[in-house]
Amino acid sequence: MNIKQQNGTVIIELKGKLVGGPLAGRMDRTLDNILAQGNKHIIVDLSSVTHLNSSGMGILISGFTKVNDEGGKLKLANITDKIRNLLSITKLNRIFEVYDSVDDAIKSFTS
Predict the structure, then answer these.
(1) Which entry of 40, 76, 88, 96 is 20 to 30 Å from 107 by CA?
(2) CATH superfamily of domain region 2-110
């Protein structure tokens, strides 16, 4: 996990397998810290995620809910075709805003 800021937006870059385990707690704590600092615009960059299972989807859903409950927005960027298909099959594409690039996601916060 790598975290950076760009144009008032926090970008969380996830890498490797998103399958639950210790990452769930780490993601939860990371979002708590980001929100505590007053950041409400968050993008999860999935360009380097090689595998996503139901536990990984749970991490994303939990993060979305946490940010939404605090009045923020969590958006996804750079998803692979495989992840796009998973979001479609599970109908989560109706919940998550998905963008082809981090830059497109950032722009969506101001439009």
Answers:
(1) 88
(2) STAS domain (3.30.750.24)
